[in-house]
Sequence to fold (330 residues):
Amino acid sequence: MKDADKFSLNQRPRRNRKSAGVRALVRETWLSPQSLVAPLFIMDGDNRQESIASMPGISRRTIDLTVREVQELADLGIGAVALFPKIDDGKKDSTASLSRDPDDIVPRCVQAIKKAVPQTVVITDVAMDPYSSDGHDGLVRDGQIINDETLPILADMALNQARAGSDMVAPSDMMDGRVGYIRQALDQAGFTDVGILSYAAKYCSSFYGPFRDALDSSPKAGDKKTYQMDYANQQEALREVQLDVAEGADMVMIKPALSYLDVIRSVKEAVSIPVAAYHVSGEYAMVKAAAERGWIDEQQAVIEILTSIKRAGADVIFTYFARDYASYKI
Ligand code: PBG
Fold:
């Protein structure tokens, strides 16, 4: 072009990025701490916490310290927690009996939190693995995971949690039909107000490793491929989600999150109930490991990751960074 004065562009997207003020004005996605759920690892004992080697900054805590943590989270604006118990090997058995016991750590912890911080939403996990001597989410017989016989176990576990005051039970086991089965059991026992947050599209992922370290809950034999989904599949996620919606789920989850943003988006477009995503332990560990080496800026990476999960369509995000995110000055 000869005469630069005559050059005119009527579309200049950069105008909407020219200052922090304009950028804030046109920003499409805002993530508030109120949309975050902090997963908490709990263990028996008093006034103790243990760090988890593969999850720097995350600890297992006894109930008393967990209650204190929940209070601090609430003060920071994180109003929801999800509980995951570490069970001693000696207390595990093939039917996960302890998970139906009112004296188990989960119901006791729910009661303690609800007493001290009643406004915090307590979400409890429904799956056999932390309590199972086989380390599987369902009942194992001859190396097979037995779907239908697992359902009453899950329903009793959910009832045990509901009686303790859990706001929402979260089946993470991926057995067929469990949402409807649990819904019926809750309703028959009068717990019509206890919600079901279904881990609807839970993939068989290599990103759960640090979580299984935290709870010592790895399968003793085999893998979880006959119940957790193949990470190559997206259509199947819609099928799983639609079944759970029909069975009465109040919220559906996609897990993990970052490698599954496309799934989050398509589920968001397919359902009219809230969609949750779980930024899982391995995803947390990767950020921590790179940040420790100085290879990425942790805070910037965390904000970018969590914002992208929200942008993809997640209304609610489970993340081990919940506390950190709420502490950032954004
Ligand atoms: C098991 C369960 C798992 C997680 C949540 N619930 C692990 C698994 O399926 O083996 C993983 C969460 C994480 O990695 O942060 N019911």
User: Anything to note?
Assistant: The mean pLDDT is 96.
